[in-house]
Amino acid sequence: MSAPDNPANWADDLGRGIDPHSAAHNSLHDDLARAVTPAGRQPLDARCVRASYEAIAAAGEDVGGSDGETLRSLRSGARAAADAARVADEIGAGPGDALRAAARAWKPHVVPDQERFWRDGLRAFSQTCDAVERSDQWLIVEAVTAARDAVGSDDSSSALAARVFVDEFDRCAAAGESIAQAWAEAADVTREQQPDTVFLVVVDAVKRVLAA
């Protein structure tokens, strides 16, 4: 996901990293790593999580002409999750903690036939974010795969769409495409093969964050 940091600030970040009088600053090693991170391998942090959930919430509000129970659930759940992700970001939480907080906030809004998909999928996603040392966008590949695997045999419409999406996303990423490209292509294939309104609202919103 695209972090909101401006590359122009990298020099300032590096300068802070070598300031011996500031215990709150990151180590020189960490600042150097950020300074040389290519544009396609941007850091994943709680701010990225916040931006994604806020985009999902906004997209849910923009879906017109549909008042189905699942879409109403998306609107209320995504807004609650975005608020939780915002708080997590503001208190300095890591991406795994932000994702878990968002998942807990969303859960009470999930309709019964979607409960297992969102509960198990989001839990696996956030646990992977905590367990894997990688901190750039490629963490998403492992996290979405873990979410797909956690859903197991769930046959809800969103779970079926998720399987198509993750299979294509994995394939594109393994072929060397950027995360943004792989995500966009997987969204297109899902729309053709296993369209699910709620799932597509979510992945299309995240696609815009990744492309930013």
Question: What's the alpha carbon Rg, rounded to whole Å?
Answer: 18 Å
Binned, the helix content reads 55-70%
Tell me about the largest β-sheet: none
Fraction in beta strands? under 5%
Stretches where pLDDT falls below 50 for ≥5 residues?
Answer: 1-40
Instruction: Look at the structure and give the mean pLDDT.
Output: 75
Number of distinct helices: 10
**Could you say which structural class the secondary elements and strand pairing correspond to?**
mainly alpha
Quick one: how many beta strands? Answer: 0
Plain-language structure description:
The chain has one domain (42-211). α6 packs antiparallel against α7 (139-151). The protein contains 10 helices and no strands. The longest helix has 22 residues, at 69-90. With 212 residues, the chain is mostly helical. The model is unreliable at 1-40 (pLDDT under 50). It has helices at 10-17, 28-35, 46-62, 69-90, 95-106, 115-131, 139-151, 157-174, 179-193, 197-211. The N and C termini lie close together (9 Å). Helix content is 68%, strand content 0%.
SSE topology:
Blueprint lengths: L9 H8 L10 H8 L10 H17 L6 H22 L4 H12 L8 H17 L7 H13 L5 H18 L4 H15 L3 H15 L1
Helix pairs in contact: 1-2, 3-4, 3-5, 3-10, 4-5, 5-6, 6-7, 7-8, 8-9, 9-10
